[in-house]
Amino acid sequence: MATVITANITAPVLRAAADRLAELPHPRVIRTDVHHALYNSAPAYDVAQAALDALTTYLQKLGGADWLNRFAFPRGRDQVVAELRAAADATEHPPRPSQYRITYERIGRHHNVPPLSVAAAGSGQLTTLIEVDARKYLLSPWFEVHVDLAAMNGWIISGLHVSGRFAIEVLDGGQ
Description:
The chain folds into 2 domains: about 5-90; about 100-170, no CATH class. The chain contains 6 helices and 7 strands, in the order αβαααβαββαβββ. The protein is about 45% helix and about 25% strand. The model has no long low-confidence stretch (mean pLDDT about 85). A hairpin with an 8-residue loop joins strand 3 (about 100-105) and strand 4.
């Protein structure tokens, strides 16, 4: 029977890996050190992989997960330990989804697009939901959606052109 992997399993693995890295004698670590710490802290390979996925997801939200997946220069041990512990906390206590209303200025050649009301936990999930909605109005399947929650707006790019703009409104407090 397959193990069901939940935050109750991955968060302790992330914390144990952070403790292992904190005990290393050298002040800088590389991705292999992180991988070894995760795999040695987990009871099974799939649990270690789930913990690595949770760490990668957390770091992608911060915009800096590339060093885990490809060659990169060593990083400060204390910084990586702090990131592992923060990822464990984020895994145990995921953000509560917020309700958003997306009001489109236009999408492609369509100017009277109805607003979209969605619940999303962060800009990544909100971007995905807007992409699904925008796909109905665009002829080209190749486009990107950019969400700026700080400015509460975003845009849709297709090729080299802006194919749409939208405003974001938070309907509840959320996080």
